[in-house]
Specification:
Layout (H helix, E strand, L loop, with lengths): L3 E2 L8 H4 L8 E3 L4 E3 L6 E2 L1 H32 L1
Antiparallel strand pairs: 1-2, 2-3, 3-4
The chain binds zinc ion (ZN).
The site of zinc ion has 8 residues, from helix 1.
Length: 77
Amino acid sequence: MAQAGKGRLNFRCPQCFMRDIDMDMFYDKDKKEYYCIRCQYHGDEKDVLEKNEQIRLKYRAMYHRFKDFEDFSDDLS
Ligand SMILES: [Zn+2]
């Protein structure tokens, strides 16, 4: 059985986080990969960081649209 444990950093699973589920991933020392026990996502540190960055951009974009909508409402009043 493969050795499994927490990595030196706790990463949340990007795939679960996209569905608003906050899930810590485990680290596979043999494969040097992080993996999620919930959704079968696995990837190395670089992949995890890239996906987390994409999610950050997605949420920032949503917030930006919301602000634009508020600006638009102000124009109507
Ligand atoms: Zn997951």
